[in-house]
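Z., the sequence and structure:
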Amino acid sequence: MIIGEFLFNNPEVRRPFEAAYTAALCSGGIGQGKFRHGAVIIKDNTIISAGFNQYKSHPTLITQTKFPYLHAESHSMFKYGLDRLEGSTLYVIRIRSQEHIGLSKPCFVCEYFIKEANIKKVFYTTNEGYNAIYCTNQTNRI
């Protein structure tokens, strides 16, 4: 699905995904396909942080993976501070070639930090639209 069509067909999530798309455009892309990912975090109807994937690292990532590149999700979370994100909502978008959206479900490392930050909901794009994950403190699972 092309990004414009996706945003037009999903008005309930248009604003946050537009912001995540803008963040993704800041990324030069990572990997052979040069996929661009962007993420925004919203709390109390306000965008509080944005991030994009990059080859840069962060000291906190080294504790969880041997490939400590910043993904859009971790970039946005670390910028604002994991201890300040409780109850917020994360939106993640992947832009493939020719402005098509793609699957942007958070990886296991990003899921770990989402749980640590007590983020309430995560919305991510799929090849056909978007999906949502509702995080719960009781089970500590995504």
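The helical segments are 3-9, 14-25, 59-62, 72-80, 108-117. Residues 14-25 form the longest helix (12 residues).

Let me know what you think.
H.
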